[in-house]
Amino acid sequence: MSADNKPRVGSVKQITSHSNPIVKEIKGLVAQRKHRTQSGLFVAEGLKLATDALEAGWQVRYLAIGPEARENPIAQKAAATAKARGALILEVNTAVLSAMTRKDNPQMVVGVYEQKMGDISDVIPEMSTTWVALDRVRDPGNLGTVIRTVDAVGASGVILVGDCTDPFAVETVRATMGSLFHVPLVKVGKEAFRDLAKSWPGTVAATHLKGSVDYRVPKYSEPVLLVMGNEQQGLDDETASVCKTLIRIPQVGQADSLNLAVATGIALYEVRRDHLSLEE
Ligand code: SAM
Question: From the CA of 56, how far away is ligand 1's center (Å)?
Answer without folding.
Answer: 33
